[in-house]
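Input structure tokens:
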């Protein structure tokens, strides 16, 4: 696993305007590649905006070849750049998914994760993700969390037990919940000995004021990059997924667990 640079785009989205958001994403991808980044993250539902309930079905993308996905895949391959993008995905069996898609550097879709834990009535808009699994990429094994998913320690622990050495969380976290995600993602890095990258919105969208504080965290909890709560920001952070093994065994939480003592729902 070769060390690489990750780029986190803390920004706004333009509700309903998929084409404008796609254009902005392509511009950010080109800039990140110019700066030497190999992986770029965008916030939850960035491609369409978050508060789009009345047009959600129409704006959702189909896997693997929705129109915006095709363009993103082509650009990722051309730039040799991995992309982690929030968007609604079509679900032939029900309501769309609030999902994050990981496009690898060769333009293939390496993994997707639909939001599994809902907040504030999201179940009226979306169906929950049917699974929570890590997946293999050209960077190594990684997993994805979607906003509220990251507030449950079991989700990141599940990904770590499934081999993830990098956990990316894309969010639309808003006031008055400042600090929550930044603290949680730093903690998730420490308790699972994994890199964590956190990408949040900033600015306003209808009734929401998003609170930023995107960040990148080393498996020891060291803050590698951090944005504020008010301004758009482009963060760059070094990631070495081989550097996820503790130098000693004192804080090897995954190996020190005692599942036989835990609640039956946690005995894995």
């Amino acid at each position: 696993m070769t060390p690489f640079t990750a780029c986190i785009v803390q920004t706004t989205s333009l509700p309903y305007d998929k084409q404008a958001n796609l254009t902005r994403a392509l511009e950010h991808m080109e800039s990140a590649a110019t700066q030497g980044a190999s992986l770029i993250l965008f916030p939850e539902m960035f491609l369409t905006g978050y508060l789009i309930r009345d047009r959600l079905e129409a704006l959702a993308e189909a896997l693997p070849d929705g129109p915006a996905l095709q363009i993103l895949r082509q650009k990722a391959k051309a730039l040799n750049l991995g992309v982690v993008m929030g968007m609604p995905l079509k679900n032939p069996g029900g309501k769309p998914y609030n999902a994050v898609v990981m496009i690898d550097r060769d333009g293939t879709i390496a993994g997707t994760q639909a939001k599994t834990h809902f907040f504030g009535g999201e179940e009226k808009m979306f169906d929950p993700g049917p699974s929570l699994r890590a997946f293999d990429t050209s960077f190594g094994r990684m997993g994805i969390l979607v906003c509220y998913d990251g507030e449950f320690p079991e989700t990141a622990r599940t990904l770590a037990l499934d081999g993830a050495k990098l956990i990316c969380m894309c969010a639309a976290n808003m006031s008055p919940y400042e600090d929550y995600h930044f603290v949680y993602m730093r903690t998730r890095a420490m308790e699972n000995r994994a890199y964590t990258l956190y990408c949040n919105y900033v600015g306003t969208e209808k009734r929401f004021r998003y609170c930023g504080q995107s960040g990148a965290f080393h498996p020891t909890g060291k803050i590698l990059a951090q944005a504020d709560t008010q301004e758009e920001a482009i963060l760059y952070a070094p990631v070495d997924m081989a550097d996820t093994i503790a130098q000693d065994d004192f804080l090897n939480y995954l190996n020190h667990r005692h599942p036989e003592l835990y609640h039956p729902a946690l005995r894995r």
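The longest helix spans residues 18-34. Helices lie at 18-34, 56-59, 67-79, 153-161, 180-192, 253-256.
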